[in-house]
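Entry type: protein chain
Record version: 2
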Amino acid sequence: MRFCVAGAGLSGAVIARTLAQCGHDVIVVDERSHVGGNCHTERDPETGVMVHRYGPHIFHTADERVWQYVQRFGTFRPYTNRVKAVAGGRVHVLPVNLLTINQFFGKTMDPGEARAFVAAKADRSIVEPRSFEEQALKMVGSELYQAFFRGYTRKQWGIDPTELPASILKRLPLRFDYDDNYFNHPYQGIPEDGYTSVIQNILNVDGIEVRNNCSFEFLSETFDHVFYTGPIDRYFGFRIGRLAYRTLDFERIVADGDFQGTAVMNYCDEDVPYTRITEHKYFAPWEKDNFSKTVCFREYSRSAGENDIPYYPVRLVNDRILLDNYISMARKEKNVSFLGRLGTYRYLDMDVTIKEALHASDVIERAFQSSSFSLPVFFVDPN
């Protein structure tokens, strides 16, 4: 059988390898000049630093299968994401932990005292938070919310936190110890040779043809089945409207030596136009001292236009309605499956993306073994 995988990111690469190893021909198309999607990494020609071209990616997971899978295709060096934040003219530690609380309030509290102190600051009148703001006020109170969450969130999402769902903040940790590891997964790391090398290795198997600088819409060939990892609304030619995304603009900074002394510095104050500065040699601490120069990027978030790279699905009420309509249209399609971040219009970490692609691979392998080959339009519920 002959298959097409639209998109050479993590989802597409895992699916393509599965199809090829089952003995089938696979065409992987991507309109960019490289594989890897937004995980793409490359050596900066001026500084030599390994740059995360579309923003930094730290791999973290609690899924043993996913961790074992990625290690087959690259050497993952240990990496702990330790984020700093500028708020009110002072540098603090994120996520909010015991050090943040003590520094911010000028205290020397122990864990129990800090827990009681923050609980007293929290808005107890909010029983069921309906928005990001209500969730924050219920969780940490007004002062910490105003300092670390309100301004940053308004810049990141372009709307007031009262309009965002509470679920966004529920993902962020609040700690009453000095643990400044941003993630709490047991497996964390960054590939020694970058993410693009990992994805190239996943795709490096007989039966796969990769076509870069090639858009799916311009293919004239026919396939037994298409695995589409691009934006679901684009597949239908934006027939009933465009789903909303946030995109990022990057302002490049090159300096001698160090610039900020850490990988990620968030800027929480709303009057600072960018959300953060990332210094990329710090994402590879095993080699950072090899470089005399450093390269950083200021990140600016805004609404994605027609020609912008989609980063974060907005998923507010109107988008959910539009998505439901596209899902209904998709379920009527023949011989196509939608998957991945863009294909299901969901925010997915890398490990979840791979986990879902491995689940889809299991379904595909079972379908090959059945008397009648049939695959679902969605391998997971996109809602």
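Comment: The chain has a mean pLDDT of 96.
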